[in-house]
Amino acid sequence: MAGIGPGQRVVEIGAGLGSLTAALAATGASVTAIELDHRLAEILRSEAAPPGVRVVEGDALRLDWDAVLAGGEAAGGEAAGGRPEGPGAEGAGPVGHAGVGAPWVLVANLPYNVATPLVIGLLETVPVIGRMLVMVQREVGERMAASAGEDAYGGVSAKIAYWATARVVGRVPATVFIPRPKVESALVSLERRPVPAVGDGVSYARLVHLINAGFNKRRKMLRGSLSGLVDGSAFAQAGIEPTARAEDLSIEDWGRLAAASPGAER
Questions:
Q1: Bridge-partner residues for 131, per DSSP?
Q2: What strands, in cross-sheet order, belong to the sheet with 9-13?
């Protein structure tokens, strides 16, 4: 499903004992395997790291991804002063799309407890990753891929839609795992957009601020959940009914609303 082959550059997060790592390497791809657990990283280096595999020990939420994907050694995970950098860092925001289209693909059975911030963080800050195929908890995968109006649609769906198109491409039952978990899993394919879904005239920070406010009170009408952030004239200008709710708005709708109501984040 990931479409991996010779000459491609692949990054795997949560490589564990290397079963997926070895399969990716067998395609002829160049694989960078990320593993947080020191013991597992040592096993990867000694047992499961054939030519074409580079093992990086570190927390994917705190890595210096520029260094990791450039093949550098400075992949330790904390910036000067002990502050995290990379996906999940406080204040992290979007960067330019100069690297979009480069042959980096993320293929991973992601650690389920951090799957959402990992995916959103990588979309926001690591544009050289152009495609992802990830296994996540089923409900999380459905949220990642949901469209406006669907039951699973939420703030995560809208933020991912800004950067990428996402689809659930497979389901994985609990019965294939040992020990058997209490949740089912899903495979999600994400393709980074050549340009974000919302034009350059809208601040990403402002857009996210509105999305968060709307979905924090998702059962309220937008005129209530966005009170103090968006006035009546902005709704009219954006062509959005103030009686709508957050789950009714596509990412393009959110973009028009943000453009019509510039705030301090703009």
A1: 105, 191
A2: 53-57, 30-35, 9-13, 104-109, 129-137, 185-192, 164-172
17 neighbors 40 (Cβ within 8 angstroms): yes
C-alpha 120/C-alpha 90 separation (Å) is 13
Contacts of 65 (CB under 8 A, 6+ apart): 86, 87, 122, 125, 126
Residue 27, helix vs strand vs coil: coil
Choose among 182, 87, 191: nearest CA to 138: 182
| Per-residue pLDDT reduced to its tens digit, 131-166 | 999 999 999 999 999 999 999 999 999 999 999 999
Residue 110: name the closest of 13, 11, 2 by CA: 13
The CB density around residue 67, as the number of other CB atoms within 10 Å, is: 16
9-30: string of b/e by CB count within 10 Å (b at 16+)? bbbbbbbbebebbbebbebebb
Structure pTM?
0.86
